[in-house]
Amino acid sequence: MGDLRFYVDESLMGLGKALSSARTDTVYPSHPRFPQVRLGAEDEQWIPIVATAGLIAIIRDRKVFTRWWENDLIIRHRLRLIHIAVKRDLSNWENLRLLVRHWDRIEEVVERDEPPPWRLKVLQNGVELVPVAATKVTGKRPVRG
After folding, report:
1. How far is it, in rounded angstroms, from Cα 81 to Cα 69?
2. I need a labelling partner for 117 at 20 to 30 A (CA). Which of 18, 62, 78, 111 fits?
């Protein structure tokens, strides 16, 4: 598992499969080389596993940074994130094109080995490294049943 670098969240499964077929360092939920995260795993389940494995998560979820309990998990487990942060949902193809267009810059940031947690926002016109800070949002954590 030492050669794995990237984990693609289930919400981007098509992108994850495309990347893992082109790159041997990329996995997604239930990938044969990373069975620790199963399909359907909640963020609260996969975040600690992915962070502990030292992988960089590729996500699309805009709300993970405003839900205090998930943001807290990111901070506590020192997760590194590549966040596709465009204003609309993209197709698998559009997500792949966006990442490939900015991949050299993404690699530059990853190679700098910034202390986690951090979020690399991938935008249409570039990337932006943002530290993950405690959220000011409060409220009850939903109970899952």
Report:
1. 16
2. 18
Tokens 């990938």: give the residue.
31
Residues 6 or more apart whose Cβ sits within 8 Å of residue 120: 80, 81, 82, 83, 106, 109, 110, 127, 128, 129, 130
Q: Which helix (H) or strand (E) holds 45?
A: helix 43-52
* Per-residue pLDDT tens over the stretch 3-53: 999 999 999 999 999 999 999 999 999 999 999 999 999 999 999 999 999
Strands of 26-27's sheet in order across: 26-27, 6-8, 56-59, 80-84, 118-123, 126-131
**Model confidence pLDDT, tens digit, residues 52-73:** 999 999 999 877 777 888 889 9
Q: Is the preceding omega at residue 48 within 30 degrees of 0, hence cis?
A: no
